Each structure stands twice: as C-alpha cells, then as structure tokens.
C-alpha cells in the first residue's frame, strides 16, 4: 500500500510540475478581469461533467479539489494561474495533449472541449450561446481564474 501511495504521489508531483512548466513556456496573453466571458454552453458543461466523472475524477477529485492530480479549481489553481498568467489555451493544450495520464490525447476533440467547459463552469465562468470548440479552446487568451462563489 505504501508503494502505491508513493507511486501516486510521484505521478501527482510530475503532473503538477508538467502543468507549471507548460504554462511558463506558453505565451500567455492577459485579458481584462471584469466579468467572466461565456465560452461554452450549459449542455456542453453538463456533458463535460459526465466525462470528467469517468475520466478525470479518479486523479483530480470528484469536486476538482485535487488528489493524486492537482486541483482544477479553488485557491491552488488560482495561485498557479496568477503566477504563470495561465490561459484557457495553455490549460486546454495541456489537458488535450497530456491527459488522461494513463492514455494521453486519447479522447475525441469534442470530449476534451466538453471537459474544459465543465472545468470553466466550476470556476465561475458562465455558459453562453456558443459551444467551446477544440480550436477556440486551443487559441484562447482568456486568463484562468476562479470567480467569486466558486
């Protein structure tokens, strides 16, 4: 059991370090910190919640609180995003190319976009009229943050 815990801790540390390194290597452009932009639809976030539960929650926690993988909402994500100017594009590219850890880049593009929509929804970004596409997510310069109440 101790070996399993050590292995999981090592994987979590590696994932966190990779996410930070990736964010630092990207050219993150800032956007204004007014009201959050609507980047996805409500239906897309709902679909993303189901996908997250089946492919991400095991490592990142049922409530995105983190576990063997880093937190995807809350103060830990907020600190990382502020220090690195982490954009939706940076975050999404890491997600789509490196996750899930046991099978990187194995999901269809629309599923990665739906998972990102769910993560955004849990960080206080509102739903809008247009779904988040793979291309739009990859190119987004919106800075990741957690909006009040989330």
List keywords for this structure.
single chain, 150 residues, mainly alpha, Cytochrome Bc1 Complex, Chain D, domain 2, 7 helices, 55% helix, 0% strand, globular
Structural features, described:
This protein starts with a helix and ends in an 11-residue tail after the last helix. Helix content is 55%, strand content 0%. The protein has 7 helices and no strands. The protein is globular and about 45 Å long. The protein has helices spanning 2-25, 42-55, 57-60, 75-84, 88-98, 109-122, 134-139. Helix 2 (42-55) packs across helix 6 (109-122). Mean pLDDT is 84; it is low at 9-14 and 16-32. The chain has one domain: Cytochrome c-like domain (Cytochrome Bc1 Complex, Chain D, domain 2, Orthogonal Bundle), CATH 1.10.760. The chain has 150 residues and is mainly α.
* Fraction in helix: 55-70%
Q: How large is the share of residues in beta strands?
A: under 5%
Low-confidence stretches: 9-14, 16-32
* CATH fold naming: Cytochrome Bc1 Complex, Chain D, domain 2
For the record, the count of structural domains works out to: 1
> At the first level of CATH, what is the class?
Mainly Alpha
How many β-strand stretches?
0
Mean pLDDT: 84
| Sheet with the most strands, sense and barrel status | none
Q: Supply the helix-strand structural class.
A: mainly alpha
Helices, by number, come to 7
Radius of gyration: 14 Å
Shape: globular
Order of helices and strands: HHHHHHH
Oligomer: single chain
Identify the CATH homologous superfamily.
Cytochrome c-like domain
CATH architecture designation = Orthogonal Bundle
What is the terminal separation in angstroms? 34 Å
């Amino acid at each position: 059991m101790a070996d399993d815990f050590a292995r999981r801790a090592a994987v979590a540390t590696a994932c966190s370090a990779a996410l930070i390194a990736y964010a630092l290597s990207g050219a993150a452009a800032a956007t204004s910190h007014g009201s959050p932009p609507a980047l996805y639809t409500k239906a897309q976030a709902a679909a993303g919640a189901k996908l997250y539960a089946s492919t991400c929650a095991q490592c990142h926690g049922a409530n995105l609180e983190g576990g063997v993988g880093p937190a995807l909402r809350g103060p830990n994500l907020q600190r990382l995003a502020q220090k690195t100017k982490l954009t939706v594009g940076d975050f999404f590219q890491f997600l789509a190319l490196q996750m899930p850890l046991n099978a990187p880049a194995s999901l269809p593009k629309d599923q990665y976009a739906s998972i990102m929509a769910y993560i955004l929804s849990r960080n206080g970004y509102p739903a809008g009229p247009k779904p988040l596409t793979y291309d739009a997510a990859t190119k987004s310069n919106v800075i990741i943050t957690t909006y009040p109440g989330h």
